[in-house]
Amino acid sequence: MTGTLSSGHSETTKALELPALLEPVTAEMQLVEQWLQSNLVDDSAFVATLLTQVFQSGGKRIRPGLVLLTSRASAPGFGELSPRHIILAVLTELIHTASLVHDDVIDRAALRRGQETVNRKWSDKLAVLVGDLLFAQASICLARLMNPAIVGIYGQVLGDLCAGEIKQMNQQFACQVDWDGYLRKSVCKTASLFSAGCHSGPILNGCGDEVVAAMKSYGTNLGICFQIVDDLLDVTATSEELGKPAGGDLAQGIITAPALFILERKDEVASSFERLIKERAVCQPEGIAEALQIMKSQGGVEQTVKLARDYAKKSKDELRCLKPSQFRDSLESIVDYLLLRTR
Amino acid sequence: MTGTLSSGHSETTKALELPALLEPVTAEMQLVEQWLQSNLVDDSAFVATLLTQVFQSGGKRIRPGLVLLTSRASAPGFGELSPRHIILAVLTELIHTASLVHDDVIDRAALRRGQETVNRKWSDKLAVLVGDLLFAQASICLARLMNPAIVGIYGQVLGDLCAGEIKQMNQQFACQVDWDGYLRKSVCKTASLFSAGCHSGPILNGCGDEVVAAMKSYGTNLGICFQIVDDLLDVTATSEELGKPAGGDLAQGIITAPALFILERKDEVASSFERLIKERAVCQPEGIAEALQIMKSQGGVEQTVKLARDYAKKSKDELRCLKPSQFRDSLESIVDYLLLRTR
After folding, report:
1. What is the least distance, in Å, from the CA of B269 to any CA of chain A?
2. Dihedral over Cα of A86, A91, A96, A98: its sign
3. CA dihedral A26, A31, A33, A34 (to 10 degrees)
4. DSSP per-residue codes, B24-45
5. The pTM is what?
6. Cβ contacts of residue A278 below 8 Å, gap of 6+?
7. Number of domains in chain A
8. Which DSSP state fits A319?
9. Residue A316: inside a domain
10. Nearest CA to CA, how far is B41 from chain A (Å)?
11. Residue contact A42–B163, C-beta within 8 A
């Protein structure tokens, strides 16, 4: 059973359902959902239809959940949250959603969570504009918080998201093994927003530097873990589980952890794997099938599982600075949930 | 000489050079330029190259100029401006530039100001990301101002820009004469940002409601005038003057003032003009040449010139509430400059 994240965790996984983990912040999550579904309505019925489509097409709301849980877990006496915490959760989901809509244009993706993307259902043009509209709404929320530290943090996130994608685009089909570059890209693309969401609530709560730094690190490590699992699932999951074709990253020349572990071997396996990439065989169904097989059978998947677990552990360790509570328990279990997810 | 905006203005135009009009705020404009050229630099050399290309490819900096002139014209004793006014000017140009970069993706434009667009030189993907990065920088600037009123104003601008484009896209090749719709679209696409730029400085200055409202109206009317002239130039200017093919709006099914004046005649000329649009003849070189000829020879251009002059006059009239100064003089002359421009 090596090579799957859930090995030996069958009992734990049973309890790891996201709604149960977010139960301590159910009321706050409902406020976030109301905001997303109604407060974004424009005078144009067409725009309203578009936004409804974007938000109703699912999404696990992990990021707003993390904002609310870290906020309550670090609040004085675990007290109730202010409207500003809700806005923080909303803007975190808005940024995430906006970046997905633009990512789908950039990747020419037809499916997201098994549903047609905005670019496929309507057009690239409209998807660019819908993403812009969501980023605009996020900016309004951010500015409403009137907190210079949080403005700086989310400003960095917005820059990181773009810079991360630009870096990735600039390195397509490049086969040198650069773990630092891979981690920096994972921080830019994913962990930066996780980190912002996890330590901005404590900042609003007026927590001390130690708690703020620990929550920042919790979010960064969890975000890196999340991205590694994402990269892993692109290799191990079925197309049905992913809601899009498997092996899509490598087919686009994006070299992630399971591929890096093969490439760094510098042996015959690594050479033939590198040839599949360099000669663009991975852009064809037979080539990508061969590459997936190598990553699965030659330890690429297994070592990636271990790497994800390492970041999960680092993330959990940071929670020790919080007083015990149901909120802290959920933050701990969410790490396992994200580690063991299959989509 | 009817049908050209500059008829009877040859002496005036001679003095209407933009650098001369912005001379009263030269020092402040230099600070804005420094900000745009250096404060946006990212850790990635490639991103820095991209941004430099975007900002060095010209642009007249009309919007930051208007921000600075309205700010000084309304400042107590015409006093010097604060760093916040500079940030306001920068963010106004950032939003404008970001929207141009995304517009070029949406319109599949190859040229802008006679230079290759980001989408043409690199790719649509990269242009989406560069636009996002510029919007992100604008959001950071906006939040730094820490002024809830201005945040609301620019939040509306960001929403308007997207909603305006979405509306336009949703009405392509629609031939019903809807002047209200045309004006609303012009406000969303252009006048909303002009208006924001012109009355936010007075708000920072703590001006009274009367001055703030007048500057808002000055900006709105000037913005509508600017958009009408833009629509006019698409019909009257040469491809060399435009830096892109003439007649591009109608070829894309975008119905602007010169076309609306023909369509509203409801006579034989209107019918054959409408057929050119409905049957998509305007998407071909011969069809667009015929449509341009009709707009020029049948009064579409002439009436549009008159419409632009009406908005220019409304704009100038609002300046009466300001005390006389070189800044007010420039604001008045800029109206003529934008009315009489040929590109």
Report:
1. 33
2. positive
3. 140
4. GGHHHHHHHHHHHHHTT--S-H
5. 0.85
6. A173, A175
7. 1
8. G
9. yes
10. 11
11. yes
For residue A184, which residues of chain B lie inside 8 Å, CB to CB?
Answer: none
Instruction: Give residue B116's pLDDT.
Output: 84
Distance CA B124, CA B130 (A): 10
Closest residue in A to B144 (Cα) is A148
Tell me how far the alpha carbon of residue A317 is from its chain's centroid. 20
Distance between A159 CA and the closest CA of chain B, angstroms: 6
Q: What is the pLDDT of residue B15?
A: 61
In a domain, B269, yes or no: no
B47 is a domain residue: yes
Q: Which residue ranges in chain B fall short of pLDDT 70? A: 1-15, 39-44, 58
pLDDT of amino acid B54: 86
Residue among B108, B132, B156, B161 with most chain A CBs within 10 A, to mutate: B132
* Residue B151 to residue A144, Cβ atoms within 8 A: yes
Written as six digits, the tokens of A87 are 């806005």
Q: Is residue A4 part of a domain?
A: no
Note down pLDDT in tens along chain A; length 343 residues: 345 555 444 444 446 789 999 999 999 999 999 988 876 656 677 777 888 888 877 688 999 999 999 999 999 999 999 999 999 999 999 999 999 999 888 878 888 877 788 888 888 888 998 899 899 888 888 888 888 889 889 988 988 888 888 888 888 899 999 999 999 999 999 999 999 999 999 999 999 999 999 999 999 999 999 999 999 999 998 877 777 778 999 999 999 999 999 999 999 999 999 999 999 999 999 999 999 999 999 999 999 999 999 999 999 999 999 999 999 999 999 999 999 987 7
For the four alpha carbons of A17, A23, A29 and A30, in that order, the dihedral sign comes to: positive
Give the rounded distance of the alpha carbon of B257 from its chain centre: 16
Stated as kind and residue range, the H or E segment containing B111 is strand B111-112
CB A269 within 8 A of CB A298: yes
The CATH number that applies at residue B122 is 1.10.600.10
Phi first, then psi: what are they for A341, rounded to 5°?
A: -65, 155
DSSP label at A116? Answer: E
Q: Collect all residues of chain A within an 8 Å Cβ-Cβ radius of residue B162.
A: 129-130, 132-133, 136
- The whole-angstrom distance between B252's CA and the closest CA on chain A is 13
Whole domain around residue B325: which residue ranges? Answer: 10-229+312-340
Residues of B with CB under 8 A from a CB of A: 42-44, 46-47, 50, 102, 105-106, 123-126, 128-133, 135-140, 142-144, 146, 148, 151-152, 155, 158-159, 161-163, 165-167, 169-170
Nearest to B159 among A133, A143, A163 (CB): A133
Q: What is the pLDDT of residue B7?
A: 43
When CB atoms are compared, the residue of A129, A155, A166 closest to B46 is: A166
